[in-house]
Structures are given as structure tokens and as C-alpha cells.
Amino acid sequence: MSQPTTGSQPTGQAHGLGGLKYDPAKRTRAPEWNVALALVIMVAIFEILNRLNGGSFLFNMRDNVDAIFNQQRIDIMLLQVAIVGIISLGVTQVIIVGGIDLSSGSVVGATAMVTMSFAQTALVNGNPNPKAVFGPEWMDLPVLIPIVVGLAVGLFAGLINGLLVAYTKIPPFIATLGMMVTARGASRWWSNGNPISFPTESYGQLSNGDLLGTLTFGLVHWQGQNPALVFLFLAVLFHLILNHTLYGKWTYAIGSNEAAARMSGINVDRHKVLVYAIAGLLAGVSAVLLTSKNLTAQAGMGVMYELDAIAMAVIGGISLSGGRGSILGTVLGAAIFSVIISGFTSIQLDAYYQEMVKGAIIVGAVILDQARQRKRMRA
Prior knowledge:
Number of domains: 1
Membrane topology: Multi-pass membrane protein
InterPro entries: ABC_transp_permease
Protein name: Autoinducer 2 import system permease protein LsrD
Radius of gyration: 24 Å
CATH architecture: Orthogonal Bundle
Distance between the termini: 35 Å
CATH class: Mainly Alpha
GO molecular function: transmembrane transporter activity
Subunit structure: The complex is composed of two ATP-binding proteins (LsrA), two transmembrane proteins (LsrC and LsrD) and a solute-binding protein (LsrB).
CATH topology: ABC transporter involved in vitamin B12 uptake, BtuC
Shape: globular
Helix content: 55-70%
């Protein structure tokens, strides 16, 4: 007797899948869960190592302190990754769309020099500013002006990257490598290699003030952590954008299959320009916060930032072939970076071991990504 065409499906038979069956055993966890697990394991390892040495890592052991967590160490860890973390948010989007950005660190350096030139105060201890770049008419400007200048410089560099990649068809590696060298040269040329210092008080408060206290009308304070607040805000913003807007859908579509994206009517070239422009803009944000935090700008600022940003994204589970990855994963990757740096410092291990371990983790993350891709293709 034949099976009825209505009613419940027999066990093991698929419905509407062309004979394919749903197998719960083949479900896979999102890559972010694996990154989060790795983060927990690393925290546990450093906590154990510190306890063996009579100290602690993230948890308090002092009887005279009621707090569970070591707030001072957490604050330091957040500051360590906030600036590069903002860059990594832009780099993440560039990699998802199928590109790469090697210029972000140099763009930070060039933007820092230009921005600080417009943020200087006219008098230092009653004397003319010894580091002045422009004349007195360009001193003591409203804080909004250096902010806009910094964002504009970063945006301009990102636009150049995007235009080169999209319309000249130069490989992203070469296009952004050229920008990296050019921007670094520009940062040294701007003031003949001399540092630029002595910003206005209002500019220094951009990073060193209490933004959270201002936003909560004094109810909650987090002095000196403005870069971390900006990083977290931008992470949430771009997480929502990538997951709930056409911009995000087109970014993933282009990275997954550029030819199919073109056939579906997406203006691929224009979208690539937009993605690179956003990455440059975020590098500008980092430069503004970095110079405000340090109260100075130097031509060497931002060295290796682009590689650290790419590493955060890769550790966070992003695929270098494009089309896969998330802002959440990058944030977790940044957290792992912070744990590595602070963890090795807490056990008093030399700094060069940190670089070795970071390099090994990056290579391991790429190997795992390649393995996932091969497994997906076989499936």
C-alpha cells in the first residue's frame, strides 16, 4: 500500500529537500563559540599560572577588596586593544568583502600628525607653543575641527584604497601596500619627522575624560576609558549593520561570490569603495583617540597596527577567502589578544615570547579556517 501524500512524514524521510534528510548530529557550532571557548581556556590557564606564583590574573585574591574581578587589570586590558580594536572592525568588513587592508596602521600615523596640528594650544606654561606647526590663527581651535580633520584624512585614504581596488582592478594586497608606504612617508614629511605635541585641554579629554559619567549624568564613572567605550559602541553598531541591513547582506554576498553578486544586480565596485572608505574612517577614529590619549603625535604611530587588526579578525574566525566572519568574532579575537599580552606580563615573561605565541595562534587560526573550508566543500 502506498504512503499517503498528507499527514506526518515517516521517520527518516525528508520533506521538500529533494530526498535529503536533516541529521541533527551534523549540526555545527558557530565559529564564535569556538573562539569564546578558546578565550575561557586561556583565561583559566593564566589564572592557574598566576595562582601557582602566589598571585592572580582576572580574579581578586585580596581579602581587603570586595570586588570579584581585578578591575585595574581589566581596565588596562581594555585600553591595550581598544585603539587597534576599532581598526579591526573596518578590517573585518574589508576581509569579508574579499579584500585586505595593509594600510590602516600607516593611515593612523599620517592622520595622527595632521590631526594634532589642528589640535594644538597657543601657549604652553605662558610661552608660545614650541611644537607649533601652523601660525597662531590655527591654535586653540574648537575641538570639533581636529576631529573632523582626522576623520576626513582617514576617509580620504580609505576612498583611495577602494577606488584603486574597485576600478583599476589592482589586487587589494598591492593597492593597500602602496597606501601603507605612501601614508608612512607622508607622516614623516608632515613635520620633518618631529613630534607634534601640546593639544588643547578639550582635545585631551576626548580619550582621558569620563564619557560614561557624562552620558549617565554622573551615575556611573569610567575615567580614562573613552577609547574602550567607543570601541564597544562601534562594535555593536557594525554588528547590527552587518546583520540587519542591505549593506551587510551585500558585503557577505560579494565576498562569497562576486560574479553571482554582479548578476544579482549589486553594484560591486561602488560597494567595495564604500567598505574601504569605512575602514579608512575607522582608522581616522583610532588616530584621534590615540593622539588624545598620548597628548602627542609621532610619525611612527600605528606601526604594525594593521597586522594586529588582521590577526584579531583571523583569530575571531573570519575567513581570509571572504564571505564569512562577524564583528562578534573579531571582538572575541581582540579579547584573546588582550589576554595574551596581559597574561604574559602577569607571569613576567619576556615580550618577545608574546610575539611568538601571537604568530603561532594566527597561523593556527588560518589552518583551522582552511580545514573548515575543505570540510564544507566535501559536505
